[in-house]
Amino acid sequence: MHQLLNRSLCAIVRPKDSSKRWVLPTQTLLHTARPSLSEQSSGSRLQSSPESTPSSAVAGASTVDSADKNKSTSQRDRKQRANEQQLSANGTSSLIDTFGRFHSYLRISLTERCNLRCKYCMPAEGVQLTQKDQLLTSAEVIRLANLFVTEGVRKIRLTGGEPTVRKDLTEIVSQLKATNPLLESVGITTNGLMLTRQLVGLQRAGLDALNVSLDTLRAARYEQITRRKGWERVMAGIDLAIQLGYRPKVNCVLMKGFNDDEICDFVELTRDRNVDVRFIEYMPFTGNRWDTDKMVSYRTMLDTIRARYPAFEALPNGPNDTSKAYRVPGYRGQMGFITSMTEHFCGSCNRLRITADGNLKVCLFGNTEVSLRDALRSPGCSEDDLRCLISAAVKRKKKQHAGASPLSTSFAHNVSHRSTPNTLLAHDGGLQRRRYASLSHVDEHTGRATMVDVDDKVSTKRIAKAQATVYVGPTIAALIENNELKKGDVLSISQMAAIVAAKKTSDLIPLCHNIPLSSIKVETSLNSSTNEVHILAKVKCDGKTGVEMEALTAVSIAALTVYDMCKAVSHEILIKNIMLVEKTGGKSEFYRKQIKHEPTLETRTMESRNPDQMPIITRGYRTDPIVTNEPFVPMYI
Q1: Could you say which of 4, 143, 151, 519 would form a disulfide bridge with 540 (CB–CB 3.0 to 4.6 Å)?
Q2: Distance between CA 136 and CA 139 in Å, rounded?
């Protein structure tokens, strides 16, 4: 099988024209390979002497016209598509998923260690690292890489952590290039601190491409972010890479209020340097609580740049490019935008990832991982077994990542029975999906969850009232009334829990705004005649958005606190009637009809008010204890 695959690939993958390896186009600015300092010859690598200078590359670039560049781009794209179509037609690759995507790009993490302590990445003291014997050895990295290349991978990027802290990085690059003639590119992603020491050796080993992560062009801010000095070394490393013939990609994650004031500074970096600066949209994860407020969208970046550079123009992109390429006419470098959030590129994704401990990830956003390390170290595991394992993982890859998914299948199914003219359901391959414009917390264009923008709203006095009822039964009611429960005063503690919960609402409900509250009043009381604890909450603020979620969170947590404190006596407890009572101060006000008069919220015990004059009249529930074999469903009257 291996020989047949090699013959089929050799028929469609021709050696590159080494005479053009120094040509760096200035119009389309393709990611061309730079010369190798290696004396080893290969059908796909250039022999070049160390005396070759980047000035000759620049001179060559000036002689290439736009038509030649477009032709080169087209030929490269056709070659790549032909390669993928050939493998797909033969059915020989395990790297084709159920949506027809062929995965020709592999990223391998070599280590979890890093020589920086970026504030948004890890604490100052570092993080707990995986034991060394659980990480892939260099031999295992090479074996897995060889297998993936056999299956059709043509581009490998070595990442971390920080890959340059691994002492055998140069040897790994050298072995990858020496043992895989079909491999078109080996690159690294680095923070750039060690480039001035290691880059010449890496180039001799055959390194083809270089990505440098750099979020600021200000030395003081760099030190503040990374807790380390070294900005000058990073810039020196980038300049060295340019001198050696590379066009380094400078990756910058833009965050609102953090470094978005440097957008045009990064554009200016491309004036005299042949670099590809790529702005990456901030991608929220569980670790940062899906904080979409920090994200600067691609369109916002584009508007900012064009306000200063009106001639800022788009460049051609390849079929699997994640970056949208642009340039300022006359500048040596170019810009790019990786729109992971606002305009995802899942449909053309050709990337797979192997973590430092040997787990295969088919999607950066996915939680599912398959341990190739364990399979490698299992006695009797053959390459065919590994291929089957890889193929099974690839075929489970979803159409698009969670952050790009318009709506989940279950949600679309749940709303299908209650659509209205304003919430029509669109059909997509048999699956009903709700149109985004009807959902206030969903982006109408992409369908992703988003917080409501309240910048244009007027700040007013906002008030919300909510209630909840907890049926506890006669035994617990007597204990509460006499304050004899072992865990303490149920009414007082639940009242405090409600106040704390109201303040923490934005931490508990992902898309709620963090609102400064001016007043939180909570009343908890026991109705001995019905064996119920009644909870009332009134929340106030002066702001641009309402506080009904804060009031509802308060009564909900208070009710759960009552349950927690009483469950040792009996689990026959029913939480019910959690509802908004009143909402004022915003564009839409709400008053529940059952309210008879304004609740005082001044007392919390039944001794201080008449049970017959409760401020809220609720629908009746069954109040008899629920037996364990009875469905836990409240019966409305």
Answers
A1: 519
A2: 8
Q: Are 144 and 354 in contact (CB under 8 A)?
A: yes
Pairing of strands 370-371, 359-361: antiparallel
Asked if residue 464 lies in contact with residue 546, where contact means CB atoms within 8 angstroms, the answer is yes
160 to 5, 116, 157, 235, 372: CA distances (angstroms): 31, 12, 10, 20, 17
Query: How far is residue 535's CA from residue 260's CA, in Å, rounded to a whole number?
Result: 46
d(CA 563, CA 439): 34
Q: Find, among 214, 156, 220, the residue nearest to 188 by Cα.
A: 156
Torsions phi, psi for 107 (to 5 deg): -110, 130
Give the pLDDT of residue 145: 95
Strand pairing of 334-338 and 351-354? Answer: unpaired
**Alpha-carbon distance values, 152 to 13, 106, 315, 351 (Å):** 11, 10, 28, 12
CB atoms within 10 A of CB 489: 14
pLDDT along the chain (637 residues), means of 10: 41 37 32 39 35 36 39 50 52 80 94 86 78 93 95 94 94 95 95 95 96 94 91 96 96 88 95 94 55 78 94 88 90 90 77 94 82 92 91 87 42 34 37 43 59 75 94 94 89 93 89 88 93 95 89 95 93 93 84 53 42 46 46 42
Distances (CA, A) of 573 to 164, 358, 497, 517, 611: 59, 49, 19, 32, 21
The residues carrying an active-site annotation are 564
Cα gap 377→441, rounded to integer Å: 47
In this structure, which amino acid lies at residue 149?
V
pLDDT of residue 445: 54
316 C-beta neighbours (distance < 10 Å), count: 15
Alpha-carbon distances, residue 316 vs 15, 70, 192 (angstroms): 24, 8, 28
* Residue 417 in tokens: 């029975």
Please count the residues of the chain. 637
Sign, Cα dihedral of 278, 279, 281, 282: positive
CA distance 222 to 229: 8
Alpha carbons 169 and 174: distance in angstroms, whole number: 9
**Distance from C-alpha of 84 to C-alpha of 57, rounded to nearest angstrom:** 31
Residue 218 phi, psi (nearest 5): -115, 125
